[in-house]
From TrEMBL, chain A:
Membrane-spanning residues: 7-31, 70-95, 107-127, 139-162, 183-208, 241-262
Organism: Tumebacillus permanentifrigoris
Coarse class of the protein's main subcellular location: membrane
InterPro entries with a match to the protein in the record: BP-dep_ABC_trans_perm, MetI-like, MetI-like_sf
Name of protein: Carbohydrate ABC transporter membrane protein 2 (CUT1 family)
From TrEMBL, chain B:
SUPFAM superfamilies the record matches: MetI-like
Membrane topology: Multi-pass membrane protein
Keywords: Cell membrane, Membrane, Transmembrane, Transmembrane helix, Transport
Subcellular location: Cell membrane
Identification of the protein by name: Carbohydrate ABC transporter membrane protein 1 (CUT1 family)
Main location group: membrane
Matching InterPro entries: MetI-like (IPR000515), MetI-like_sf (IPR035906)
Family the UniProt entry places it in: Belongs to the binding-protein-dependent transport system permease family.
Pfam families recorded: BPD_transp_1
TrEMBL record, chain C:
GO biological process: maltodextrin transmembrane transport; maltose transport
Family: Belongs to the bacterial solute-binding protein 1 family.
An annotated Gene Ontology molecular function: maltose binding
Protein source organism: Tumebacillus permanentifrigoris
Record flagged with keyword Transport: yes
Keywords, in A-Z order: Signal, Transport
Residues in the signal sequence: 1-22
GO cellular component terms, semicolon-separated: ATP-binding cassette (ABC) transporter complex, substrate-binding subunit-containing
InterPro entries, per database record: SBP
Pfam families with a match to the protein in the record: SBP_bac_1
Tagged with keyword Signal: yes
Name of this chain's protein: Carbohydrate ABC transporter substrate-binding protein (CUT1 family)
Amino acid sequence: MKRRRLLFTVFWWGAALLFLAFLVFPVLWMISTSLKPSGEIFQIPPTWVPEHPTLQAYSTLWQKGNFLRYLLNSILVALATTGIAVLVASMAGYAFARLPFIGRKTVLFGILTAQMIPGVLFLLPIFVLMKQLGLLNTYLGLILANVTFALPFAIWMMYGFYKHIPAEIEEAAWVDGAGFGGTFFRVVLPMGMPGLLSCAIFCFLSAWDEFVFALALNTRDELRTMPVGLFSFVGQFGIEWNYLLAGAVLVTIPAMVFFALFQKYILQGFAAGAVKG
Amino acid sequence: MRPKRSTRFWRNRNSGSAYLFLTPALLILGLVILYPLLNTLWLSFQHKVLIRPDQDSFVGMENYIKALGDQEVRQATLHTIVFTVCSVGVKVVLGMLGALLLNVKMRGAAWVRSFYMLPWLVPSVVAALVWRWIFNDQFGIANGMLATFGGPAVNWLGQDTTAMFAVILVDIWRGLPLMTLLLLAGLQMIPRETIDATLIDGANAWQRYWRVILPLMKPTLIMVGTLSLIGTFNSFNIIYVMTGGGPAHATEILVTHVFRVAFQSFNFGYGSTLAVLILVLITILTSLYNRLLSGRGEAKL
Amino acid sequence: MKLFTSWKVACVAIIMTSVVTGCSSNSSSGNASSSNTVTAWVMGEGAWKEYYSKLADQFNKEHTDVQVKVDFIPWEQGHDKLIAAAASGAGPDVTTDGGRWTTELAAMGALEPLDAYIDSAYKQDFVESAWETTQWKNKTWGIPQGFTTTGLFYRTDWLQDAGYDRAPKDWDEFRDAAKKMTKDNHFGFGLVGDNSMETTMFWAPFLWQNGGEILTKDLKKATFNSAAGVEALQFYVDIYRKDRSAPESALSTKRNDSHKMFTNGIAGMTTTGPWFFAEIRESKPDLKYAVAPYPVGKQAATLATTDHIVMMKTAKNKEASWKWIDYVTDKQHSQEWNKFIGFIPYRKSGLEDASFTTDPNFKVLINEAKNGHAYPTLPEWPQIDNLIANAVQEALAGKKQPKEALDDAAKKVDEILAQSK
């Protein structure tokens, strides 16, 4: 039995390292390139570890662009999207899970189909809509678009999550006279914290990733998010990839921090919410 | 799962609150999705080319008829199906293996899990940029590695099949963490003893896995697979940034094609028609997938 | 419970900030729309931003009745943004644009004709080939704002090693030189063949040199698939497929990639315009290079491009908008801009300026103006442009023979042109 255990451990690590090799190596290559001086990136064969590591790419990037601003914009948009989407989704998810109302199935199904709609195809109508609402060139417009695209999945997650929380505690709170809102805010939300947090990670990362609308709905440099800012540099730097990949490293770090903060909740939340449905 | 009396309990409370709680979500979705959807549907029956406002007119089904006979659309559809099926297929298989792996209690597993999630944290546009550099024919590490093994340099993004391979690979790379995470979440609902037994019990491990775990995972696979199918079908950023649909349309999928029709030819009428057709196609694909897995043709919500 | 409280606070805080910032940036755009403020877009960042933000400050200081607020849009995104803005009426009051977009915008009904603001004396100071690009349906839709020609940039040291003491003069010499420069991961020519309009920009001069034209004079039919066109594409393809004197990655090489290959010692030749001087000076001041006219096929030819500044139909205060247009393009500021960025003067009064005639490299590009060809001016140009780029790509990829690729593209172009009547 012991030998078998050892064999299994070896097998496990072998498989795990294979996966990681595929998943992590581009990130290592990204970091490595960003630390190379311009001359070294055009070396053949390419070097894995920079021979003359330098932060030159980072400092150039910092000087040339509004990078700090882009970073703050991304963080602001992603956090605000997360805050709004999580709140709205948990309210809706709770209603779906607890309250039998007419047309519940239909509405739930409608929200799921909304998930299927590729945002790119609605670029122009949404652009026109935002114009009519006066939300072009505002954070709010971008946040609204991001919330919309994160919502269907988020609602679904929260719905699944609340469905599997026993209802007795809330019932007790009701009986104690807490009322609907009171029950939700004081009892349900805290109980659903793991679900909320994994939902938050999902919303944050989807806003962090968003590109097409951030590109289309803004014309101001000072409102650009990181992906758009970085994309705009492609034309400027061409094949001088050390600059672009320095930007890539910078944009990945905040997401890593956010993820690391809430990581321990995510699996719990997903298990209860998304998958069981 | 809830006891029945509970439902009655809730029904006795005012169901007006339910609508109140739903309002914000429905308001936002209605505004930013329903309106554009109806707008697109309406436009799909119009002849509307932005640079020719004088020609605007209602044309009924004309755009739809044109789309069905459009060679470029047919080609893009084929590419979309190849792209989606390959990417989702590999993601599901690898994701399942990865989930089984991460589900094992092992010292250091927490670290492996953290690093495993890394690609999900890189925005897809940025990921596409990074991979474009990896696939650079002269200075990229992909050819660098091939060279170490004495392989020939490959013109990755300049040939039809390798370009398609490259964009599929990147889509898998980006999507695998979330896929694994969702499958892992599903796995965690299966009693641990069941899984441990299948894995460690030597000779029959694979058979047992097949017979015991997969059926238990079916609902999860349906859910997660459907989601991934939809997401991959609409994968725009990676192709847009890596190849722009090239070389010579070899990686042009439906969403990038529609983008081109709408924003380079400014044919909004026709572009809307294609958008509607894409929605129809996604619905067909997802219901096919569900039928395939559930065997009875009904997706469980 | 405690965790929840802090979470709730955080939520509220986030929503508050977002609403506040949303509103505040909203209100700033509200201010901008008051009638004596002109909102202007300028295409381009870097040097464009540096110069035009200063110019706007200066304008605002000199004027009390009119103020201007400028936003900068990267060139690659400019076209899509302008069209989206024009289609929804959400655009600026004034914008600069790539001259090839102007007729398209005019056809959409998004532009204000400028004839009311100018007289014949005003027109006369403009270089004709630049001025002509602003005309469509007998109206003036923009004012030239930047004028450039392109030429062949080559590494003098590499060329010497290849056995030439001067730039290649004709196509045969060009191919030969490129072939000889290609060795040890160096390439003769940074050929552009990516999936975009930049490929057309790179190939079109070769078409013209061979006596080809893109469309018939009346703009009713495609002619780029003529024998001259097929030969020009064959030439372009041979450099890549037969001689292999361009990097394999040509099918994903953009113009800027080609330029960076040149400055980083990967490609020995590239074609581009005068704005490239400043870039070389900044990034590789020691680069041994010179500029020559394009190698001559049957005739000398180069691509001349004119950027415009245009007024949108939705401009709230048209008089004020014109003041900004006039300020940008008047004799003094146009000349300042040309010197700053290294463009060619588009006003005749600027051509004699000594600072343009002393630099030999610059003189080459000014002289090339007489061989300048411009793209046809019609609203469908961007679509045609795309079809040509696609045909070039198909031929470079070896999917189709040059003739087949161009014929197929020509058929589609003819369909587009027939529909537009």
